[in-house]
Design a protein that fits this description.
The complex is a heterodimer. Chain A is α/β, with parallel strands linked by helices. Chain A contains eight helices and eight strands, in the order βαβαβαβαββααβαβα. In chain A, strand 7, helix 7 and strand 8 form a beta-alpha-beta unit. Chain B has helices at residues 3-20, 41-52, 97-100; strands at 26-33, 62-66, 71-74, 80-82, 114-117, 122-129. In chain B, helix 1 (3-20) crosses helix 2. The chains are: A alpha/beta, B alpha+beta.
Chain lengths: 234, 130
């Protein structure tokens, strides 16, 4: 309001200043994410951010990966969940070092939390050198997509029971991902899931995305997944 | 759901700028939300209004959102296509699925399909302070 006469126009003589900023709201997160990436590279590893809905099979995929990778490469896991150590315990049972991060309610991991996880990994685990660090995000196909954690590759997963319309319905997660992994394909006979439709939708959002389908239960397609991982290390 | 975290980050940035400019009050905040950012603008505005009540500096701040039109790229001729040229539909909180998934052909080469180009930004562009 104008100070002189009380009219509703802006008083040009007031102390109001307009400052141009043009900075991302995620700038603080992204700066820490870059540090995380350097940190992981110093550890001699590449990091993969695994994003999916709850129950798409992220932990099961990692358990099966542990069985198959024994003589090929070493990996560690940072588990993100809202509550409990359950996922980390499942991974440790396979002889794989795992750190559990609990967000206590937050729907996604962010770079500062992963930074804590990296230090925990170094402090608590005297591990043999590893080549891959999996960061298993909180089960959620929406929010994790906006947050760079310092990963080198992002892998988005959809399981057969969820339906092939998921890329169209949750597009943001597919935009920045390197690989789209369709999981639980041993259930294809029981659900109306079209691999073609899911692939086409994902490629409409991100033409560069690679698509693979696997069953961690039967092992079908897992050889391609392992080859993808080995290719990242070489 | 992550709109709350985004607004918390925004407030941290604003407080830093306000401190360096010795501002007493923030009257307006301008934020640009890209069409492919995945941000729900209503949730963002709601989070802004809820969280500003806890900040003396921001109590009277108004939020202005800039919502640029989407840009697409053609899968065949790689031309950048201005989204406002191929639809009159107002931007909503969608990912422009009506454009992406209904086989709209590139208006230039009439052959390729369109996919998102850029537009994932969430930017603090301007702050008005006293």
């Amino acid at each position: 309001m104008c100070d002189t006469c009380g009219c509703q126009t802006n008083n040009q003589n007031s102390d109001t200043r307009l400052i141009d900023i043009n900075k991302s709201l995620l700038e603080a997160n992204n700066a820490i994410a870059s540090k995380n990436r350097e940190h992981i590279e110093k550890m001699g590893a590449v990091a993969i951010n695994l994003i999916s809905s709850p129950g798409a099979g992220k932990t099961t995929l990692l358990e099966k990966t542990a069985d198959m990778a024994t003589n090929l490469f070493h990996f560690c896991v940072i588990e993100g969940d809202i509550e409990t150590e359950r996922d980390a315990e499942r991974i440790r049972a396979k002889g794989i070092p795992a750190i559990q991060l609990t967000t206590g309610g937050a729907c996604h991991l962010d770079a500062p939390l992963v930074h804590k996880g990296l230090h925990k990994l170094e402090d608590e685990i005297s591990t043999t050198p590893f080549q891959i660090l999996f960061i298993e995000n909180v089960g959620n196909l929406v929010c994790p997509a906006a947050f760079d954690l310092g990963e080198h590759k992002r892998v988005v997963m959809v399981s057969v029971p969820e339906g092939s319309d998921k890329p169209a319905k949750y597009p943001r997660a597919f935009l920045g991902s390197d690989l789209f992994l369709i999981t639980k394909i041993d259930l294809l006979d029981y659900f109306d899931f079209s691999i073609e439709e899911a692939t086409e939708c994902a490629k409409r959002i991100n033409p560069k995305i690679r698509v693979m389908s696997v069953s961690a239960k039967t092992g079908q397609g897992m050889d391609k997944w392992i080859a993808y991982l080995q290719n990242l290390i070489d | 759901m992550h709109e709350m975290s985004l607004v918390q980050g925004l407030f941290a940035q604003i407080k830093e700028v306000a401190k360096s400019h010795k501002a007493k009050k923030i009257s307006k905040v301008v934020v640009q939300i890209g069409p492919f950012s995945g941000v729900v603008t209503e949730s963002f505005s709601f989070a802004f209004d809820v969280l500003k009540e806890e900040e003396l500096l921001l109590k009277d701040a108004k939020l202005q959102l800039l919502l640029p039109d989407p840009t697409f790229m053609c899968s065949h001729c790689s031309q950048k296509i201005d989204g406002s040229k191929i639809t009159t539909q107002k931007r909503e909180n969608s990912f422009h699925n009506h454009l992406l998934f209904h086989d709209i052909k590139c208006p230039v080469c009439k052959q390729g399909l369109l996919y998102p180009y850029g537009g994932d930004e969430i930017l603090l562009t301007q702050i008005e302070m006293e």
